[in-house]
Amino acid sequence: MDLVNNLSLGLETALQWQNVLFCLVGVALGTAVGVLPGIGPTATIALLLPVTFNFDSPTSALIMLAGIYYGAQYGGSTTAILINLPGESSSAVTAIDGNQMAKKGQAGLALATAAIGSFVAGTVATLVLAVAAPPLAKVALTFGAAEYFSLVVLGLMISVTLARGSVPKALAMVSLGILLGTVGQDLNTGTPRFTFDVRELFEGVNFVALAVGIFGITEILRNLRDPQTRDAKLHEVHSLWPRGKELRAMSGPIARGTGLGSLMGILPGGGHILAPFASYAAEKKLSRHPEQFGHGALAGVAGPESANNAAAQTSFIPLLTLAIPANPVMALMIGAFIIQGITPGPNVINEQPALVWGLIASMWIGNVLLVALNLPLIGLWVRMLKVPYWVMFPTIVVLASIGTYSVSNNPWHVFMIAAFGLLGFVLVQCGCEPAPLLLGFVLGPLLEENLRRAMLISQGDPSTFVTRPISAGLLAVGALALLVAVLPAMRKKREKVFVEED
Amino acid sequence: MSAPVPAPPPVGGPPDDPETSTRGDLVAGSLLAVLGAAFAVGAHGYGLGDFRTMGAGMFPFLVGLVLVALGVSIALKGARGTGELTVGLTRIPWRGVVCIAGAVLLFGTALEHLGFVLTVALTALVACLASPTISIIRAALCSLGITVACYAVFVLGLQLRLPLWP
């Protein structure tokens, strides 16, 4: 049994004491930034990316960064339930019914439901990841330039579909990201592009600076404009453990949420954002008491929380098999691989089996740690919500500067933080989403490289993208996704989904 | 200004924010179009080549044109008042913008001259002043705390090799 061998290799790696320790550090940090509104996993991972450069083992580094990501999904729901403010965008759905439950004095039950749902979903999704990754990596090895090009287009189109706000804006943000990705020396001809003869720009726009600027600094400026009222009433947590009846009531939604989330997480382009919304809509439709939704329905917490966590785990599948990031955090993980001298892609799973399987197994260990960290220690996390913002944002500014500088001791990268922070602020205030820009930036070079290679192979005939069946299929799905997003019926639904979160 | 479209929630504030208008679309669209045009013009100079062997400029040139088209269409919607309702550039927190951007630029400029400790302290102080309600004593204490914490984490803990003093 390959699967058993692989998983035991993974567990062996993940259970080494330093890896368990880094996993614990990761999930604890993740929970902390998840609980705190205003700083998310994207900015945190971007900040810590340079630090991992000093780690001895790439496995430990990736285990820790992954822990931050799925730990933040846990932490985000705590804030959503207790003060009706989603700590993470993905826990916006949990806030709807979770906070209503808290108002009815069921905060403990809501928190326990979220934790149990996340744990079950995390466990199942880790298995899905273990089963699906090797065959997908094999398929990916047969991909040529045209297929890769179409796959990247598909990923970008899905990220456009899922962005909040208007479709042209999301498309424009993707394009701007791609253009920023072309800054620096052209790999094929060696021509320096858009560098204004500044030597420091030859290696291109720094990824950490872009991510920190457009997510971290932009968010700080927006919070300075509209200070969030964080002193909203904190609900007290009474009994934590659910009774048998409640366990039975949550089992269905958890199972469905896990299935839905696992599937949507695999989509390149950010399916994990949509997963909790889809699960909420499904539970509402299936429920015998749909009128309870919005007024503290248990299923409205159990389903979306499971979907959310399952999708967070399976979004590693496109990363590990195709080197296509499903969301900005996965884009940062690609950066982490590269910093460690590993080229992500279908070959990693064969060349570095201990790393890949260790990472997968660590996610299960991380989920166990998260349940242990979250339920008994809930009081500690709640206290963190009382850290004033005027302490937090200067800390973020300083950490961002130190982190970015230390990647390559280049002050130009620090200047870029300020530039992208301001650009991001203007664009986000005008309704443009930063996530498609970052994905465009990461995928842009891949897009250009494969476009040029495919056109060279086909002697300049662009029909190669539609005459090769896999490539044509991928493009068709991408076009469909975009079409669905602009159709009036779907637009109304998207608006409704996003209205509900307020 | 009345907009005929049903309002999606504006990204920057509560849905009934009286500041929302479609002017944000005009700003964002124009900005994106100008950026796209700049990239396209620059790329044109790097040589386009042909579709078989693309030059260094071909790909950014094409994407730049796409961005111009998208930017113009967004800006036109904003000008006609049929765009998305957003808060746009109303009520810019100028103090925050100046202090935060200043703090980051200060860090990049000063680090190689003043060393880690002084640079971090100054950066934290300037960043603290972004908050409109903070007192100078509180800002000084806050920056002192951040400096000590950063020294402990980066110099003692992670042993980052940076110049410490001028």
TrEMBL record, chain A:
The keyword Transport does not apply. The keyword Transmembrane helix applies. The chain crosses the membrane at residues 21-49, 61-86, 107-133, 139-163, 170-187, 207-224, 316-342, 354-375, 387-408, 465-487. InterPro entries: DUF112_TM. It comes from the Bacteria. Pfam families: TctA. Keywords: Membrane, Transmembrane, Transmembrane helix. Residues 21-439 form the DUF112 domain. This is TctA family transporter. It comes from Klenkia taihuensis.
Automatic annotation (TrEMBL), chain B:
The keyword Endoplasmic reticulum does not apply. The chain crosses the membrane at residues 26-46, 58-76, 88-108, 114-132, 139-160. InterPro entries: DUF1468. Residues 1-22 are annotated as: Disordered. Keywords: Membrane, Transmembrane, Transmembrane helix. It comes from the Bacteria. Residues 27-163 form the DUF1468 domain. The keyword Transmembrane helix applies. It holds the Pfam family TctB. Residues 1-15 have a biased composition (Pro residues). This is Tripartite tricarboxylate transporter TctB family protein. It comes from Klenkia taihuensis.
